[in-house]
Design brief:
The protein is α/β, with parallel strands linked by helices. Helices cover 45% and strands 20% of the residues. It has three domains: 1-106, no CATH class; 163-242 and 388-420, Nucleotidyltransferase, domain 5; 245-357, no CATH class. The strands form three sheets. Strands 12-11-7-8-9-14-13 form a seven-stranded mixed beta sheet, with helices on both faces. Strands 1, 2, 3, 4 and 5 form a five-stranded mixed beta sheet that branches. The chain binds zinc ion. Zinc ion (ZN) is lined by residues 47, 49-50, 52, 90, 92-93, 95.
């Protein structure tokens, strides 16, 4: 049954400008920044409780939302939508209901497309940068709130992520705690499937529930204990591989700690950089500085040489055998500080061997974690590097077509993630440069 309700006059031009198929804009109402609109009434829905089509208007209400016009240039892009809408009452069961509309979630203060805009912009901008883009109509804190909500809704509605035969879980430094990057490998390409802000067992369990693990044959990990625990419990028969680059990361950490203690008399940052760089990569002009530092600190020199030796193996025709020899010589001759790391390597030689047999390059996966760590440390806290990576993952994903013809979600190519973080870093440097 259809009913005619008297509607106000319509402004056709502004209705077209607004471009929301569910809404009509009222004539002679509002200025350039205010659009008074109402839903088309030719689509009164049936009662959601009993399906009856006979309803009466219960109440007329007004709701104000922030919106962005699709094809309008600044500064007239950002508008307020004043929507007059109706709630209905079912004539049979007396249920009162308000129809759902596509353009916004119930009770939201922003339209969906405005939220999408905020999320898109915030991937490559700081929160205050996004706020400025809206002519400060939305505060940085409100931008964050709406992004968080978008993220929650998006994450909850995503289908499980296809993992193929290789899953990779690697920790990376995330301000004070360790975060976890979740990578999937398909045909030699690496995709970021998600990032976790911590490496607790419970969040790893939750993560695994969101992944399609049916075909996984092997898992590449580093030495994060909680990851191993959960994997043993959830995927007990899985082959575990260790990227030997993880050990280089541990040795570098130890080198960094020792260099900090041994060279606190050196205040220049670039001298620390020289110590942290493998000898092969050091510029001729830096050689002199390095020699001077190491000459005066024999304990540091030993750790540096061990680290350099490990780098040499990993970057030129590595094998489990060569690594084992390196570890054994550390055990015999020190430096003492590296003995636990060498012992750990020997304990996990089988897992490293699996990695070698799979034909994977050393430091391939651990370098992804290293780069995520780098950006997390470099980027200003206000820019939420970790969340940006998640936003990117939720916003765009590659797909793969399986042999049975079905199409599955993969994640974001890792190059795209790192490029985005790099761009962000460049932009921040540009903005904050004096
Ligand atoms: Zn009803």
């Amino acid at each position: 049954m259809s009913r005619r309700i008297k509607e106000p006059a319509i402004d056709e031009i502004r209705t077209k400008k607004l471009g929301i198929p569910e809404l009509l804009v009222q004539a002679d109402c509002g200025d350039d920044y205010i659009y008074c609109a109402f839903p088309k009434t030719n689509r009164i829905p049936p009662c959601p409780r009993c399906g009856n089509f006979e309803t009466t208007v219960h109440l007329v209400r007004t709701r104000v939302l922030r919106d962005i016009l699709p094809d309008v240039q600044e500064p007239l892009r950002f508008i307020e939508l004043h929507i007059t809408y109706r709630s209905y009452q079912c004539s049979k069961c007396k249920n009162v209901f308000t129809p759902n509309y596509e353009f916004a979630l119930p009770k939201a203060r922003l339209t969906r497309r405005f939220e999408d805009f905020l999320v898109r912009e915030s991937i490559s901008r700081s929160l205050s940068g996004v706020s400025e883009m809206t002519n400060s109509a939305i505060s940085p804190a409100a931008v964050k709130i709406s992004i968080d909500r978008w993220e929650q809704e998006k994450a909850a509605s995503q289908p499980p992520l296809y993992v193929g035969d290789t899953l990779c879980l690697m920790a990376y430094q995330n301000s004070r705690t360790l975060g976890l990057s979740v990578l999937t490998v398909d045909n030699g390409n690496i995709y970021l499937a998600d990032v976790l802000s911590e490496t607790g067992s419970e969040s790893i369990r939750t993560l695994l529930r969101k992944l399609e693990l049916g075909k996984v044959r092997q898992v590449i990990t580093d030495l994060t204990e909680s990851v191993w625990e959960v994997l043993a419990e959830r995927l007990p028969n899985i082959v575990r591989l260790i990227d030997p680059g993880s050990y280089y990361g541990l040795v570098q950490e130890q080198l960094y700690e020792s260099a900090k203690q041994e060279t606190h008399w050196l205040s220049m940052k670039d001298k620390m950089d020289v110590i942290m760089t493998p000898r092969k990569k050091i510029l001729a002009t830096q050689q002199y500085t390095l020699r001077q530092i190491l000459k005066q600190r024999p304990k540091l020199a030993k750790i540096y040489d061990a680290s350099d030796g490990l780098y040499e193996i990993l970057s030129t025709g590595w094998s489990t055998q060569r690594l084992t020899q390196w570890a054994e010589s550390i055990q015999k001759e020190g430096p003492e500080l590296l003995i636990p790391i060498a012992q750990n390597l020997l304990d996990h030689a089988t897992n490293i061997r699996h990695y070698e047999l799979a034909g994977l390059p050393a430091m391939k996966f651990s370098s992804v974690s290293e780069q995520l760590t780098y950006y997390n440390m470099q980027l200003r806290p206000c820019s939420f590097a970790l969340e940006k990576v998640r936003l990117l993952y939720l916003n765009a994903s590659d797909t793969v077509q399986l042999e049975d013809g079905s199409i599955r979600r993969l994640g974001v190519p890792i190059e795209k993630v790192l490029d985005t973080l790099k761009e962000l870093k460049n932009e921040q440097e540009r903005i904050y440069e004096p």
